[in-house]
């Protein structure tokens, strides 16, 4: 028996949980439908208290806010019923520029339910219903204190409800807060018929009228119909055929419109695709051209670098060769001191060699030979090509008259080692430096300038 009681209790709990879930889902679905109908109606006319869509929406919202609302406990332990206005008044006091004090001070609104209905209308005209609901749901402590477990306000669907109510901010409402509209004694009744719609499938051939006519005539098959019944049945069939044709025509027009829309959409997408493909090809061609140009420029720069390196190598070699030639030229420009001393002694001897009043022809020949030897010695710096004093034969006597051959004559002729006094023997043959045979050399101290 105990196990049977536990089983029944579990079944009851499961049934209660299922009924609560179905109730929450139904209220939220109908609330979304009512918001959509209000939005559709607002496109054609102004929403006021006489609008059936608005009356139905207010009833649905009252049921949602009153779902599993806790009662107020008195001193004696009894619970008195409570309205959702008590929750709104406690949870929305911190909303900036709220209308709670204004509603509390209204003279024609006495009951708690009437104040709640007045609050719904005021916040709809202010377009702040979603703001109030979001602010109240964030105060979870107050919400938990007013509602029991399983309430819509405590569930995850409450956030979706606040988001759904945002669409009402686009509607301009116009309400009158005076009169019998805010009577709190009238219960809120939801009308579900606007949201219940049966759509007949396209495969179904028989309509509702045919089914009703078939059901109505099924019991009188054995009876003989009269002419009036036959005419009525024929007229009914014709009207049914006409209605079917109209429905098929409407569906056909709708299908044609959808087909045209889809074809236009496909053409647009194909045009966009072709444009994108052409643009992609142009980008690929541009990328290929850029890559080719980059490759050519790279090869050209490499060739230029190699050519510059070759030119730099050639210039370095030429510079090194020029330096060597310059060094050799500067080194070979001046003869050695021994050769200069030998040339100076030979020049002294040739300048002051003379016979009794006449120059010997042999001396000029020796002078020309000495000049050639000097030129050769300047180019090769070989001391073997110079005419030295040691090279002449021994016991050679230079004829002279009245003068004694002394080494002092060397100093009178000047030193060939100095740059200022040195000149080639070819210049010494000129009339500027050498005395003619007709000229009397009076002094051995004359030096060439």
From TrEMBL:
Q: Which residues form a coiled coil?
A: none
This protein's superkingdom? Eukaryota
The residue range of the signal peptide is none
SUPFAM superfamilies documented for this protein: RUN domain-like (SSF140741)
Which PROSITE patterns does this chain map to? Answer: RUN
Q: A Pfam family in this protein?
A: RUN
Q: Which SMART domains match?
A: RUN
- Region annotation (Disordered) maps to 207-227, 389-410
Keywords linked to the UniProt accession = Coiled coil
Q: Where is the composition biased (Polar residues)?
A: 215-227
Residue ranges of domain RUN in the record: 48-180
Keyword check for Coiled coil: yes
Family, similarity comment: Belongs to the RUNDC3 family.
The molecule here is called RUN domain-containing protein 3B
Protein species of origin: Parambassis ranga (Indian glassy fish)
User: What taxonomic classification does the UniProt entry list for its organism?
Assistant: Eukaryota, Metazoa, Chordata, Craniata, Vertebrata
